[in-house]
Amino acid sequence: MENDPALAIEVVGLEKTYAGSKNSPPKTALRNVDLTVERGAFFGLLGPNGAGKSTLINILAGLVTKTAGEARIWGHDIERDMRAARRSIGIVPQEINFDPFFTPWEMLDVQAGLYGIEKKHRRSDEILEAVGLAGKRDAYSRSLSGGMKRRLLVAKAMVHSPKILVLDEPTAGVDVELRRQLWRQVRKLNDDGVTILLTTHYLEEAEELCDKIAIINHGQVIACEPTEQLMQRMDSKALRVVVDRDLDGVPEALSRDYVVEQRSERVLLFSYAPSRVGAGEILTAIGAAGLGVVDVSTREAELEDVFLSLTSDADESGAGAPGPTATDDHAA
Q1: pLDDT, tens digit (0-9, with 9 covering 90-100), for 63-95
Q2: Other CB atoms within 10 A of residue 161 CB
Q3: Could you write out the three-class secondary structure of 122-160?
Q4: Is 93 helix (H, G, I), strand (E, B) or coil?
């Protein structure tokens, strides 16, 4: 471990422009992207559809050729040291892409062979055990449930013991319970030292799992911070208070450093900035207005609030103005 690099992934000035045609101009998918993922991190990459997430992942995987910039995987340049770079990364695609007539064990064995792993060093049974599929070792993969197929994709990406695992929308279309099972498996891999790069449309998934999050929009990284720090960008909180008598409007004494809405005869909703006012001050003001408090609940800002705020701000400021942005489903 002494020779392991501090950075699992390092991207500097990365750009990708897809060539145009007679009827359409060139399309830029990535613009001067700088990004670092530390060794052992659980890193989230978020962005709207067409933001450039899949293009970035496909460049790291060697499926798309970059236009400019540099990218290194576990210290290996993706072009100058291509073989070592690709051996250091495993990709779990969004699409289920395996032969339905292979058993899980056969599939992992073939995949290991493609990576040149000698039979005596293959870990097919160990990997199936790790993802909870040991009991389905010899079943046809077409007979597996949706959640099992997702876990089999993770297993397939792990046959060459990559240092980095990239999961592209791994729980798309998976029900809540199966999603949580997959979370547990991926957390265990991370606890065992595997660096995880996750893209997801489930923002609560990124908020719960990732210790650092980057947000990409119009091919540019507009935020890259520890999750807790990113959440603090939204200096916003809501306090729902049930009072002890019916109201015919918001008492004038409560119009201060916060916004108050009357939601029903006895329910008031206070929206406030924790940096300027505390919940205790609001409750004191309610008491001073002659009202008793029956119940109180709060709502913290969520990652969805931060995401929508940052991406809408970027859109309004004209991010991506130099030209149209390619959607993520272009080929190289």
Answers
A1: 999 999 999 999 999 999 999 999 999 999 888
A2: 15
A3: CCHHHHHHHCCCHHHCCCCHHHCCHHHHHHHHHHHHCCC
A4: coil
